[in-house]
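Give me the fold.
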Amino acid sequence: LEEAAEFYIPLSNGHVDEKQLEMINEYSVHLLEFLTSICGSTFEMNDLQRIIVSLECLCCYNDNIVEDWGSDFNSFVSNEAGLAASFTIRDQAVELLSALDDESFLIASKCIMQELSNLTERNTSWKYQESLFFLLQSIVANDSMPSVELGQEMLGVLSFLSSVLDWAESNDFVQSRAILVIPKLLEKYMDFLDNVKALTGGLFTQSLNLALSSANEMIKASILIAFTYYAYFAELPSVLGHDVCQQVQTKTLKLIHQVCQE
Protein backbone atom coordinates (compact mmCIF):
# COMPACT_ATOMS: atom_id res chain seq x y z
CA LEU A 1 0.00 0.00 0.00
CA GLU A 2 2.88 2.35 0.78
CA GLU A 3 4.41 1.69 -2.63
CA ALA A 4 1.05 2.42 -4.28
CA ALA A 5 0.85 5.71 -2.39
CA GLU A 6 4.36 6.70 -3.51
CA PHE A 7 3.46 5.92 -7.10
CA TYR A 8 0.12 7.76 -6.96
CA ILE A 9 1.29 11.15 -5.62
CA PRO A 10 3.20 12.19 -8.79
CA LEU A 11 0.19 11.09 -10.86
CA SER A 12 -2.20 13.17 -8.77
CA ASN A 13 -0.23 16.38 -9.35
CA GLY A 14 -0.56 16.71 -13.08
CA HIS A 15 -2.76 15.79 -16.00
CA VAL A 16 -1.91 12.19 -16.87
CA ASP A 17 -3.24 9.37 -18.96
CA GLU A 18 -6.52 8.09 -17.51
CA LYS A 19 -5.29 4.52 -18.01
CA GLN A 20 -2.48 5.09 -15.51
CA LEU A 21 -4.96 6.39 -12.94
CA GLU A 22 -7.27 3.44 -13.59
CA MET A 23 -4.42 0.98 -13.07
CA ILE A 24 -3.30 2.45 -9.73
CA ASN A 25 -6.94 2.77 -8.66
CA GLU A 26 -7.67 -0.89 -9.40
CA TYR A 27 -4.45 -2.07 -7.75
CA SER A 28 -5.07 -0.01 -4.60
CA VAL A 29 -8.72 -1.03 -4.37
CA HIS A 30 -7.71 -4.71 -4.38
CA LEU A 31 -5.14 -4.11 -1.63
CA LEU A 32 -7.75 -2.31 0.48
CA GLU A 33 -10.29 -5.07 -0.21
CA PHE A 34 -7.84 -7.56 1.25
CA LEU A 35 -7.28 -5.42 4.34
CA THR A 36 -11.04 -5.06 4.73
CA SER A 37 -11.44 -8.83 4.58
CA ILE A 38 -9.19 -9.31 7.63
CA CYS A 39 -10.75 -6.55 9.74
CA GLY A 40 -12.11 -9.17 12.11
CA SER A 41 -8.67 -9.14 13.71
CA THR A 42 -7.27 -6.10 15.47
CA PHE A 43 -4.49 -4.31 13.61
CA GLU A 44 -1.32 -3.33 15.44
CA MET A 45 -0.86 0.40 16.00
CA ASN A 46 2.20 0.58 13.74
CA ASP A 47 0.32 -1.16 10.91
CA LEU A 48 -2.66 1.20 11.23
CA GLN A 49 -0.38 4.24 11.25
CA ARG A 50 1.16 3.06 7.99
CA ILE A 51 -2.28 2.39 6.50
CA ILE A 52 -3.61 5.84 7.49
CA VAL A 53 -0.56 7.65 6.11
CA SER A 54 -0.87 5.69 2.85
CA LEU A 55 -4.59 6.47 2.62
CA GLU A 56 -3.84 10.14 3.22
CA CYS A 57 -1.88 10.05 -0.06
CA LEU A 58 -4.13 7.68 -2.01
CA CYS A 59 -7.30 9.63 -1.18
CA CYS A 60 -5.91 12.91 -2.51
CA TYR A 61 -7.85 14.27 -5.46
CA ASN A 62 -5.99 14.10 -8.75
CA ASP A 63 -5.85 17.12 -11.03
CA ASN A 64 -8.30 15.58 -13.49
CA ILE A 65 -10.99 15.44 -10.79
CA VAL A 66 -10.18 18.95 -9.60
CA GLU A 67 -10.65 20.29 -13.10
CA ASP A 68 -13.83 18.28 -13.79
CA TRP A 69 -15.56 19.13 -10.53
CA GLY A 70 -14.42 22.73 -10.70
CA SER A 71 -16.27 23.12 -13.99
CA ASP A 72 -19.23 20.84 -13.22
CA PHE A 73 -20.34 20.68 -9.59
CA ASN A 74 -23.05 18.16 -10.51
CA SER A 75 -20.32 15.51 -10.78
CA PHE A 76 -19.27 16.37 -7.23
CA VAL A 77 -22.87 16.07 -5.99
CA SER A 78 -23.32 12.70 -7.71
CA ASN A 79 -20.13 11.42 -6.10
CA GLU A 80 -21.11 12.58 -2.59
CA ALA A 81 -24.56 11.05 -3.05
CA GLY A 82 -23.04 7.70 -3.98
CA LEU A 83 -24.37 7.87 -7.53
CA ALA A 84 -21.03 7.82 -9.36
CA ALA A 85 -20.63 4.87 -11.72
CA SER A 86 -16.99 4.09 -10.85
CA PHE A 87 -15.65 2.48 -7.66
CA THR A 88 -12.65 4.37 -6.36
CA ILE A 89 -9.91 4.15 -3.77
CA ARG A 90 -11.99 6.45 -1.59
CA ASP A 91 -14.97 4.13 -1.78
CA GLN A 92 -12.90 1.17 -0.59
CA ALA A 93 -11.22 3.30 2.08
CA VAL A 94 -14.66 4.04 3.53
CA GLU A 95 -15.45 0.33 3.60
CA LEU A 96 -12.15 -0.45 5.32
CA LEU A 97 -12.48 2.21 8.02
CA SER A 98 -16.13 1.32 8.58
CA ALA A 99 -15.27 -2.35 9.08
CA LEU A 100 -12.55 -1.92 11.71
CA ASP A 101 -13.21 -3.62 15.03
CA ASP A 102 -13.65 -1.56 18.21
CA GLU A 103 -9.99 -1.45 19.19
CA SER A 104 -8.75 -0.77 15.66
CA PHE A 105 -11.34 2.01 15.34
CA LEU A 106 -9.91 3.77 18.39
CA ILE A 107 -6.34 3.38 17.17
CA ALA A 108 -7.14 4.56 13.63
CA SER A 109 -9.10 7.53 14.96
CA LYS A 110 -6.12 8.58 17.08
CA CYS A 111 -3.83 8.21 14.06
CA ILE A 112 -6.06 10.47 11.95
CA MET A 113 -6.28 13.06 14.73
CA GLN A 114 -2.50 12.98 15.09
CA GLU A 115 -2.13 13.63 11.38
CA LEU A 116 -4.61 16.51 11.73
CA SER A 117 -2.55 18.03 14.54
CA ASN A 118 0.50 17.89 12.28
CA LEU A 119 -1.25 20.04 9.68
CA THR A 120 -0.44 23.17 11.67
CA GLU A 121 3.19 22.11 12.06
CA ARG A 122 4.06 21.57 8.41
CA ASN A 123 3.41 23.19 5.08
CA THR A 124 0.81 20.74 3.83
CA SER A 125 -0.82 20.89 0.41
CA TRP A 126 -4.57 21.49 0.38
CA LYS A 127 -5.01 18.06 -1.19
CA TYR A 128 -3.62 16.38 1.94
CA GLN A 129 -5.83 18.54 4.16
CA GLU A 130 -8.96 17.60 2.23
CA SER A 131 -7.93 13.95 2.19
CA LEU A 132 -7.52 13.90 5.98
CA PHE A 133 -10.92 15.55 6.43
CA PHE A 134 -12.34 12.83 4.18
CA LEU A 135 -10.73 10.07 6.27
CA LEU A 136 -12.16 11.69 9.40
CA GLN A 137 -15.60 11.70 7.81
CA SER A 138 -15.16 8.08 6.75
CA ILE A 139 -14.14 6.65 10.09
CA VAL A 140 -17.09 8.15 11.97
CA ALA A 141 -19.26 5.88 9.81
CA ASN A 142 -17.85 3.02 11.90
CA ASP A 143 -20.40 1.75 14.44
CA SER A 144 -17.85 1.49 17.25
CA MET A 145 -18.28 3.78 20.24
CA PRO A 146 -15.68 6.52 20.75
CA SER A 147 -13.61 6.61 23.91
CA VAL A 148 -13.77 9.44 26.45
CA GLU A 149 -10.25 10.41 25.35
CA LEU A 150 -11.36 10.80 21.73
CA GLY A 151 -14.42 12.73 22.84
CA GLN A 152 -12.28 15.18 24.78
CA GLU A 153 -10.18 15.87 21.69
CA MET A 154 -13.16 16.46 19.42
CA LEU A 155 -13.87 20.02 20.52
CA GLY A 156 -10.38 20.98 19.33
CA VAL A 157 -10.97 19.24 15.99
CA LEU A 158 -14.28 21.07 15.50
CA SER A 159 -12.62 24.35 16.43
CA PHE A 160 -9.96 23.72 13.78
CA LEU A 161 -12.61 22.92 11.16
CA SER A 162 -14.44 26.11 12.11
CA SER A 163 -11.24 28.10 11.55
CA VAL A 164 -10.94 26.52 8.08
CA LEU A 165 -14.39 27.87 7.25
CA ASP A 166 -13.40 31.33 8.49
CA TRP A 167 -10.04 31.54 6.73
CA ALA A 168 -10.43 33.43 3.46
CA GLU A 169 -7.38 31.68 1.97
CA SER A 170 -8.79 28.17 2.46
CA ASN A 171 -9.11 26.10 -0.70
CA ASP A 172 -12.69 25.59 -1.93
CA PHE A 173 -12.34 21.79 -1.86
CA VAL A 174 -11.07 21.92 1.72
CA GLN A 175 -13.91 24.17 2.88
CA SER A 176 -16.41 21.98 1.08
CA ARG A 177 -15.15 18.86 2.89
CA ALA A 178 -15.10 20.71 6.22
CA ILE A 179 -18.78 21.59 5.74
CA LEU A 180 -19.58 17.92 5.10
CA VAL A 181 -17.53 16.40 7.93
CA ILE A 182 -18.68 18.73 10.73
CA PRO A 183 -22.25 17.35 11.10
CA LYS A 184 -20.95 13.79 10.99
CA LEU A 185 -18.57 14.53 13.86
CA LEU A 186 -21.30 16.27 15.86
CA GLU A 187 -23.56 13.26 15.47
CA LYS A 188 -20.88 10.75 16.46
CA TYR A 189 -19.52 12.68 19.44
CA MET A 190 -22.57 14.56 20.72
CA ASP A 191 -22.52 12.72 24.06
CA PHE A 192 -19.01 14.04 24.75
CA LEU A 193 -19.60 17.68 23.80
CA ASP A 194 -20.75 20.37 26.23
CA ASN A 195 -23.50 22.71 25.02
CA VAL A 196 -23.89 20.56 21.93
CA LYS A 197 -27.05 22.41 20.85
CA ALA A 198 -25.30 25.78 20.77
CA LEU A 199 -22.26 24.23 19.09
CA THR A 200 -24.39 22.56 16.42
CA GLY A 201 -26.39 25.71 15.75
CA GLY A 202 -23.28 27.85 15.53
CA LEU A 203 -21.41 25.56 13.13
CA PHE A 204 -24.45 25.05 10.93
CA THR A 205 -25.08 28.80 10.69
CA GLN A 206 -21.40 29.44 10.01
CA SER A 207 -21.40 26.91 7.16
CA LEU A 208 -24.61 28.33 5.70
CA ASN A 209 -23.32 31.91 5.78
CA LEU A 210 -20.10 30.82 4.07
CA ALA A 211 -22.07 29.14 1.28
CA LEU A 212 -24.26 32.20 0.76
CA SER A 213 -21.24 34.49 0.50
CA SER A 214 -19.25 32.14 -1.74
CA ALA A 215 -19.31 32.19 -5.52
CA ASN A 216 -18.31 28.53 -5.60
CA GLU A 217 -21.17 26.19 -6.55
CA MET A 218 -19.49 23.19 -4.90
CA ILE A 219 -19.51 24.92 -1.52
CA LYS A 220 -23.16 25.87 -2.00
CA ALA A 221 -24.03 22.27 -2.87
CA SER A 222 -22.05 20.99 0.14
CA ILE A 223 -24.14 22.85 2.71
CA LEU A 224 -27.34 21.57 1.07
CA ILE A 225 -26.00 18.03 1.40
CA ALA A 226 -24.84 18.76 4.95
CA PHE A 227 -28.30 20.09 5.80
CA THR A 228 -29.63 16.54 5.43
CA TYR A 229 -26.89 15.31 7.80
CA TYR A 230 -27.85 17.89 10.44
CA ALA A 231 -31.56 17.16 10.06
CA TYR A 232 -30.91 13.45 10.60
CA PHE A 233 -29.70 13.81 14.20
CA ALA A 234 -30.81 17.28 15.31
CA GLU A 235 -34.21 18.91 15.64
CA LEU A 236 -33.17 22.18 14.05
CA PRO A 237 -36.10 24.30 15.37
CA SER A 238 -35.09 23.27 18.91
CA VAL A 239 -31.36 23.64 18.25
CA LEU A 240 -31.58 27.01 16.53
CA GLY A 241 -34.56 28.57 18.24
CA HIS A 242 -37.69 29.84 16.47
CA ASP A 243 -36.33 33.16 15.15
CA VAL A 244 -32.96 31.82 13.96
CA CYS A 245 -34.66 28.80 12.42
CA GLN A 246 -36.86 31.08 10.31
CA GLN A 247 -33.80 33.02 9.19
CA VAL A 248 -32.07 29.75 8.28
CA GLN A 249 -35.08 28.61 6.27
CA THR A 250 -35.04 31.86 4.31
CA LYS A 251 -31.29 31.60 3.68
CA THR A 252 -31.58 27.95 2.65
CA LEU A 253 -34.32 28.73 0.13
CA LYS A 254 -32.18 31.54 -1.24
CA LEU A 255 -29.26 29.13 -1.58
CA ILE A 256 -31.40 26.53 -3.37
CA HIS A 257 -32.53 29.24 -5.77
CA GLN A 258 -28.91 30.20 -6.45
CA VAL A 259 -27.88 26.60 -7.11
CA CYS A 260 -30.88 25.94 -9.37
CA GLN A 261 -29.87 28.88 -11.54
CA GLU A 262 -26.44 27.39 -12.20
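The longest helix spans residues 18-37.
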